[in-house]
Amino acid sequence: MENEQEKVHFFDRPENIRRMLKGFYALCILLVLLDFVVHRHIGFGWEKIPAFYAIYGFIACVVLVVLAKIMRKYVMRKEDYYND
Amino acid sequence: MIELPPFLIFFAAALAVVFTRGLTRQVILLITPVLTGLYLWFGVESGAHAAVSIMSHELIVLRADKLSLLFGYLFCIASLIASIFAIHVKDTKQHVAGVIYAGSALGAVFSGDLITLFIFWELLAVSSVFLIWARGTERALKAGMRYLVFQVLSGVILLAGALIYFHDTGSLAFDHIGLDAGLAGWLILLAFGIKSAFPFLHSWLTDGYPEATVTGTVFLSAFTTKVAVYALARGFAGEEILVYIGVTMACFPIFYAVIENDLRKVLAYSLINQVGFMVTGIGIGTALALNGAVAHAFSDVIFKGLLFMSMGAVLYRVGNINGSDLGGLYKSMPKTTALCVIGALSISAFPLFSGFVSKSMVMTALMVENYGYLWLLMLFASAGVFHHAGIKIPYFAFFAHDSGIRTQEAPRNMLIAMSIAALLCIFIGVQPQYLYALLPWEVDYWPYDVTHVLAQLQLLLFSALAFVWLNQKGMYPPELRSVNLDMEWFYRKLIPIGAQRSLTMLSSAKDSALTVLGGKIQGIQIQFSKSSLAKYHLSESWPTGSMVFWIAAILAAFMLLEIFELGN
Fold this sequence. Notes:
Radius of gyration of chain A: 21 Å
Order of helices and strands of chain A: HHE
Largest interface: A-B, 48 and 55 residues
Largest sheet of chain B: 2 strands, antiparallel
Strand order of the largest sheet of chain B: 1-2
Strand content of chain B: under 5%
Oligomer: heterodimer
Shape of chain B: globular
Largest sheet of chain A: none
Distance between the termini of chain B: 77 Å
Distance between the termini of chain A: 38 Å
Structural class of chain B: mainly alpha
C-alpha cells in the first residue's frame, strides 16, 4: 500500500476531524434531549436527576484523570527504576 | 458410554505436538479445541461423572453441570482463537505450554474434589510460566519467576486449606465451601483470591502478563483468572465480603490504567477491573448476579483476548507497545485498527456489543439488592473502563499524533483469529439469548430496554466527551516513558533494599566490633607478653596453628587407642 507517495489519510485533514467532532457533539446533545422525552425507569433516587448518566459519566472521567495525574506525582518513576 | 475427562484430549495433543512439525502440528493445534468443544457439546451432559482411584483416594476428574460446562465451552473457544493467533510460531515449547495450559484450565473446571483441583491449579501455574519465559529476555525471566512464586504459593495455600477442610468436615468435595468453614474457608478463599488477582495480591498479573510473548499473553489472559472466577462462583457464592473486594478491584486499576505507558499493561489493569465485576456478582450471590458474573467471564475472555491480540499484532509488527512511541498506525494497519475498536466497544459495554449484555446483569443485581453507593462506584468504574480500554488503547496505538511508523498489516492468521473474536463479540451482543440459555441459573432477564440503552449511551458518550475536552484543553496526561509503583514495589524494591541495608549494617557492625575487639585483644596480648607466662612455648605466637596441631595430635592418640581397643 505504501509503495507510492504516501497518500493523505482521513485524520490528516483537520476538516474531517472537525466534522467528526461536530457529529459527536450533536449526538451528545440529542442524548440529553432524549432524557426529557423518554421516561426512564428509576431504581435509585439520584437517577431522577435530569441527564443523570451524562453528568455522572462526564464528572467521573474528569475526576479519574485529575486524580490519576496527582497519583503520578507519587508513583511515577524512571523506566529503569527496577534496574532490569 | 465412557466418560472421558476433556483435559485428556489436550494432554494427548500436547504430546503429539512435541513429536510433530509443520502442517501436521498446526492441524493438531487447531483440531484439538474444536474436537473437545464438540465432545463437550454433544457428548457430555449435565450430571456426567468420572473418577479414578489413586491410593484409596478417589479423584473426581469429571463433574459436569451447567456451570462447569459453560466454562468448558468458553475455554475451547478461547483456546481455538489463541491457537489460530499463534499458529505461525515455530517455538515448540510455547505450543506445548499453551496446550497443556488450556488443558489444565479444562481439568480445573471439571474437577469434582479439592485435590484434583489442586493438581490442575499447579499445572496451570507451571505450564503458563513458560509463555512468559519464552520471550527470552532477562526481564521476562525475572518477571516469570516472580509470577511463578505467586502461582505456586496460591496452590500451596489451596492444598493447606483443602487438608484442613478434610480434617474438619471429612469431605474433599468441591462444592459450596463458604467462610463458615473457618480457617479452611479463609485459606481456600485466599488461594482463589491470589489467582483472581484480589487487590494487594494482583501484582503477579500486571507484572507478568506484559512480559509474556506476543501470543503468550493471549493465552494467559483467557485462563488463569477465569478458572479462579469459576472456583469462586462454585465455592464462595453469596459471601458478602466479595462484593467489597470486587468493587475495589473494579475501581483502583483504572487509575493505573490511565497513567500506564505499556499498552499491554493497561490491558492487564483493565483485566483486573473486569474480574472485579465478576467477583462483585459472585459476592451478591443472587441468581441474576451469579449469571451476570459467569456471563461476563464469557464475554470478557473473548473481548479481552481480542484486545490483547490487537496489541500483540502491533508489538509483533512494530516491536514496541509503549503508548509514548506509537500513534498513527491506522494508516498501515487499518484492519487491526477496526478489530481493536470492536474489542474496545465490547469491553466498554456499548449496546449491541458483548460487554453490555453481561455487565448490565451485575449492575442490575446491585440495584435490585439496593447497594446504592457501591452501584455508584461501579458506574464510575464502567465509565473508567471506557476511558482507558475503550478510548486510550485504540487512540494512542492507532490514532493520536502520527509517530511516523509505517509497517505492515498483521499477518493473516492473526487477522483471522481477531475476526472470529470480533464476530463473537457482536453476535453475543446482538443475540444474547444464546449465551443466556447456557447460563447455570434460571433467570428471566433481557438487557435491551429504552432506559438501559439510553442510560448506557449517555454514560459512555459523555465519558468520551470528557476525554475530548481534556485533550483539547491539554489536560490529558501525556504518555510518558516510566514505571508506576504498585504492589510489586514491596518485593522488588523494599525487600531487596531492606535486605541490602541490613547486610550493609551488619557488615559495618562486624567491622566496628572487630576494630574494638581487635584493639582489646591486642592490648591483652601485649599485657600477656609482658607477664611471666609468656616464656612457655604455646604462648609464643598467635596460638591457633599450634593449638590445631595439638588437638590433632590428641585426636590421633584417641583414635589409636580406639583402634587397638585400649580404651575399654
